[in-house]
Amino acid sequence: MQIDISYESLPIFEALSSKVRIDIIKLLSKDKLSVKEIADKLHLSSAIVTMHIKKLEEANIIRTERVAQRKISSLRVDEIDIHFPKKIFNAFDTKETCIPVGHYTNYSIKPTCGLATLQEFIGKVDEPRYFMDTRRMDARILWFTEGFVEYQTPNYLNEDEKAEMIEISMEISSEFPFHNNNWPSDITFYLNDVELGTWTSPGDFADIRGKLTPEWYPDNLNQYGILKTIRISNHLTNMDGEPLSNITIEDIPTQSEVWTLRIEVKEDAKNAGGCTLFGKGFGNYDQDIKIKTYYS
Fold first, then answer.
1. Which of 295, 176, 279, 185 is closest to 233 using CA atoms?
2. pLDDT confidence bin for 66, thresholds 50/70/90
3. Average pLDDT, stretch 71-84?
4. Do 104 and 161 have their domain in common?
5. Does residue 273 sit in the same domain as residue 178?
6. Fewer CB atoms near the end CB (10 Å): N or C, the chain?
């Protein structure tokens, strides 16, 4: 589950602020249980346990289903990732561009794969030829198991302006037929043909629906990703504050008129678990691929 520091996330924080509810989560991590079974294990009344169960259900942390004559509770999530607000860098001026996920200029991918607009799938899923469909420009989500997609963006820096840091952010996850919350994938990033490093995505998520994912999109397909931010500075390249590589801004050719961003799952990757990219209108973050340049 992906959450951020916002009022919308308060039910989740509130649900976790109870020793009893933490104990219930621990029990459900081992087995599906009824209210009575939970109450017996915690030495509490069924009425009290029901109250706590409802709080966890409202936060989408657990689900309760009727099995025969009993209501059985189970965990919906096995991980909660909290996204904090970005630190703002005020030392430099900035220029920013956004690239819709369907605006790739080159690709080479293998199924499972597919694209979708806000209204429908583009052609048939798992057929790479539809990545050349003219409707791809309207795609707001795309996925593939192996290969790459490549994007280009104008270099808006003037001759007398020097890039001091480049920030690239996107919502991204692995790709698994239907979904799998535990499906690692090694995804490699390049800027202007320089390999920035590889990040291992933990999974392809559909434990709950994406906040923005359109209603027509099936529940059992990838619903949301993780918002990841790559920063290339004078010292190194990091992702969300963690070192990604020793590549610095000096290693990146920034004078060309057009910059190229490649996102790839290599054929020989240790975890070849695919890639899903979420754009505006899909997932949990209402954004396309963002490239922000800090300059002096």
1. 295
2. confident
3. 84
4. yes
5. yes
6. C
Give the Cα-Cα-Cα angle 19, 50, 21 (nearest 5 degrees).
Answer: 15
List all residues 6 or more positions away from 140 whose beta carbon is below 8 Å from its beta carbon: 100, 101, 102, 116, 117, 118, 278, 279, 280, 281, 282
| Confidence tier at 86 by pLDDT (50, 70, 90) | low
**Tokens 């490239």 found at:** 291
The alpha carbon of residue 119 and the mean position of all alpha carbons in its chain are separated, in whole angstroms, by 21
The model carries a pTM of 0.78
| Identity of the amino acid at 60 | N
Give 80's contacts (C-beta < 8 A, 6+ positions apart): 1, 3, 12
What's the domain range around 277?
86-295
CA distance 166 to 292: 6
Among 49, 75, 101, give the residue marking a domain's end.
Answer: 75
What is residue 42's three-state secondary structure?
Answer: helix
**CATH code of residue 50:** 1.10.10.10
